[in-house]
Amino acid sequence: MNRKRMLVMLAVSGLLFGGVFGFVAFRNMMIKQYFATMPKPVVTVTAEPARSEVWRQVVPAVGTLQAVNGVQISSSAAGLVREIGFQSGQTVRKGQVLLRLDADVETGDLRSALAEAELARTSAARSRTLLKSDAVSQAAVDKSNAELKVKEARVAALRAQIDKKVVLAPFDGVLGVRKVDLGQYVQPGQAIVALQDLSTMLADFTVSQKDLSLLAPGQPLRLITDAWPGRVFDGEVNAVEPLVDSRTGMIGVQGRFANADGHLKPGMFARIEIVRPDGEAVVTVPVSAVAYNLHGDSVFVVEGKPDGAKEAVRAVVQLGDRREGRVAVLKGIAPGALVVTSGQVKLESGAPVEVRDDDPLKQAAKAD
Prior knowledge:
Layout: H1 2-37, E1 43-49, E2 51-74, E3 79-84, E4 91-92, E5 97-101, H2 104-132, H3 138-164, E6 166-168, E7 173-175, E8 185-186, E9 191-208, E10 220-224, E11 233-240, E12 250-258, E13 269-286, E14 298-304, E15 310-316, E16 318-323, E17 326-331, E18 338-342, E19 351-356, H4 360-367
Parallel strand pairs: 1-19
Antiparallel strand pairs: 1-18, 2-9, 2-13, 3-5, 3-8, 4-7, 5-6, 7-9, 9-12, 10-11, 10-13, 11-12, 13-17, 14-15, 15-19, 16-17
């Protein structure tokens, strides 16, 4: 009796557990079927066609700017500052007096030397007159002529010393901050003020030897600096070093850029591009359309379905140069392909999409 009751209990328990497990399996199957058949939400995106453009290939480099003429003005003579003929930041012309040093002692010596030279000149003339009447010897005449030359040389030396007491601008340019004061005693070579000719700027940079074929005087250059974002300065190659650095394989280049408005300053760092003479047809998309990851860069392409709906399909792409907010696509899509430019964060390949005509990013930029 007990055995029969045990078998009944086991059978009932098996039915109960089987029913529970069956219900759980049925529920999971229904949930899976529900999600499989549930329609995917439509994602609103913006898109634009990939363009076919002709881009000139460029070789990038980083350079340092310097003025075509730039020096630290200094005096070649020592003395007290008697007169300062400029203001800090002033624009000056070539030959303009910048500084005068005290030259009273040299001026006094010059007067004495002039008097001695005049006396020597008179003596030499008298000796030449007396030589005609054989009153003096030729040796006496030669001696008086030599003494005259010595006195004249002394006068020339003193005048040169006095001229060195006046500091002139060697070229047109803009002055920096004054470093001396009235009454200050300056030594030879002591900095007085910086002078920079900003009309033309030179940029020194290096490029790889593999780009040597592009380097020739007159080759077009473009310059971009953080101080003036969005502005491109056009220039050309001014000179190329005649040798390649054997340690780095790099070659030095100097570019020349017009700077009439004075926006470029010596010492600036700048991004420089050597422009290739011929262009290349490329497919371009906005930088915002590209998704970057370790498995490869990709874009979402909007494609039409037979029922008229649209879906986003992921396309793996190979990218090239970037320029002015766009990037070249070397492989992966064709010109005219409609690529998603915003809203792709919520997308997966095959997701239905609705394309908006207005780009919220562009609208926000216009509002700013």
